[in-house]
């Protein structure tokens, strides 16, 4: 990709994000829905101005999702998140188990190989935390009990999905996955998040104050950015996820006295990078690979439809499991439906290893497309304008328009629904 070509792709990305994001909001839908549709138009199914498979675009997209999860962590009250921990874990594990079993069942029904069957089940197991938290932010639901359950469950989903990927990769490579090795993977994945929060809560406040006292231009901005990048890198090295590390970094800094200042420092960077992630999701969708009227692609279209039904049903059922909490369970279940980065990662690994055909890769892409597109309008209908309105406007400004002042943040916290 030449510099000129890259500039054209970047131009198309921002035009698609702003134009279709605004159009979506004008018709009462979250901006993320419009950004993904805009990506389809400028991507491989449309104008072909954006190729998300190029390394530079992939890196920019990853930076977008890292920044988004960092900001969500900054706005998340850890104590309140922990208060719904039991419900979040229950929703996550139930959803993963049902999705895995259902996806594998579809693979067996259609006569695919055992390895492909396991890949299909694992690929649709994890909720897309990036898409989920963006929709919740657009609808102003991150501070509600349902929002906290969804965010917590999506983080657990992401970790479990990566554990499944590690197990599947070991199987493909011919390595035996012993009980000890599986236990080690689980300990590392969840241990990183716990250690990051505990140790980070001790170190981060001192580091931030030290950075501020240095009297260096933009010290807080660069200090916070370095903290986010370091945590994301450490999470990746520990066998977890970049975005889980970024979310943990935000959770830690949210407990410092400078959290509001950090948000104001970081939000302009998010304005640039976050839309790239969602446009790139749409740009990667090849609609032509799933033509139900073409004899060659029809079986893969059928596979995609069946996997999508299973993927939706599994998460809706999982949303009903925390029966002991007073929650809008339909909102929780619907919020867990989107599939995205983990599913596509499974599809890419399976395709590269020769386990999945190009057709099955397209089937998984179909699951991502449908679950991503249907959730924003359905959540909007379930939540209702009267519930989402003021908070959605505040959070939308906070992420993509203007920083939130301390007084405004205090007012939002005071108006947050009780536990």
Model description:
This protein is mainly alpha-helical and 419 residues long. The protein has a domain at 35-46 and 82-182 and 275-413: Na+/H+ antiporter like fold, CATH 1.20.1530. It is built from 18 helices and no strands. The protein has helices at 3-26, 31-42, 55-74, 78-83, 85-109, 114-123, 129-139, 145-172, 179-213, 219-237, 242-253, 259-283, 298-318, 329-335, 341-352, 358-383, 385-401, 406-414. Helix 2 (31-42) runs antiparallel to helix 16 (358-383) and helix 7 (129-139) packs across helix 17. The chain is globular and about 65 Å long. Mean pLDDT is 80; it is low at 385-419.
Tally of contiguous helical segments: 18
The gyration radius over C-alpha positions equals 21 Å
Number of strands: 0
Q: Pairing-aware structural class of the strands and helices?
A: mainly alpha
* CATH fold title of the domain at 35-46 and 82-182 and 275-413: Na+/H+ antiporter like fold
Uncertain regions spanning at least 5 consecutive residues: 385-419
Indicate the CATH architecture of the domain at 35-46 and 82-182 and 275-413: Up-down Bundle
Helical content, roughly? over 70%
CATH class of the domain at 35-46 and 82-182 and 275-413: Mainly Alpha
């Amino acid at each position: 990709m030449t510099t000129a070509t890259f500039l054209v792709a970047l131009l198309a990305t921002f035009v698609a994000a702003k134009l279709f994001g605004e159009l979506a909001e004008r018709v009462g839908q979250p901006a993320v829905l419009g950004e993904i549709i805009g990506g389809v138009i400028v991507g491989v199914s449309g104008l072909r101005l954006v190729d998300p498979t190029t390394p530079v675009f992939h890196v920019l997209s990853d930076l977008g999702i890292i920044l988004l999860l960092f900001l969500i962590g900054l706005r998340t009250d850890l104590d309140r998140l922990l208060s719904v921990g039991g419900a979040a874990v229950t929703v996550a594990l139930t959803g993963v188990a049902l999705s895995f079993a259902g996806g594998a069942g579809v693979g067996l029904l259609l006569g695919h190989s055992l390895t492909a069957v396991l890949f299909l089940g694992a690929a649709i197991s994890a909720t897309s935390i990036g898409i989920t938290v963006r929709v919740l932010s657009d609808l102003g639901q991150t501070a509600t009990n349902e929002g906290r359950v969804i965010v917590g469950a999506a983080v657990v989903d992401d970790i479990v999905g990566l554990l499944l990927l590690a197990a599947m990769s070991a199987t493909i490579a011919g390595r035996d996955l012993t009980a000890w090795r599986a236990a080690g993977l689980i300990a590392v994945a969840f241990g990183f998040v716990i250690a990051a929060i505990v140790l980070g809560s001790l170190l981060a406040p001192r580091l931030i104050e030290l950075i501020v006292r240095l009297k260096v231009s933009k010290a807080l901005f660069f200090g916070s950015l370095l903290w986010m990048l370091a945590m994301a890198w450490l999470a990746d090295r520990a066998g977890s996820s970049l975005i889980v590390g970024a979310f943990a970094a935000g959770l830690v800094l949210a407990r410092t006295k400078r959290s509001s200042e950090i948000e104001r420092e970081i939000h302009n960077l998010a304005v640039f990078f976050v839309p790239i992630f969602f446009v790139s999701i749409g740009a990667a969708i090849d609609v032509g690979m799933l033509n139900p009227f073409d004899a060659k692609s029809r079986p893969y279209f059928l596979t995609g439809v069946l996997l999508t039904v299973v993927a939706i049903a599994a998460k809706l059922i999982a949303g009903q499991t925390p029966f002991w909490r007073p929650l809008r369970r339909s909102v929780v279940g619907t919020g867990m439906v989107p599939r995205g980065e983990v599913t596509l990662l499974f599809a890419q690994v399976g395709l590269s290893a020769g386990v999945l055909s190009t057709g099955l890769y397209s089937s998984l892409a179909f699951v991502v497309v449908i679950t991503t597109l249907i959730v924003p309008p359905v959540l909007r209908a379930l939540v209702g304008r009267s519930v989402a309105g003021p908070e959605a406007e505040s959070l939308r400004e906070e992420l993509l328009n203007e920083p939130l002042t301390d007084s405004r943040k205090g007012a939002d916290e005071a108006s947050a629904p009780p536990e």
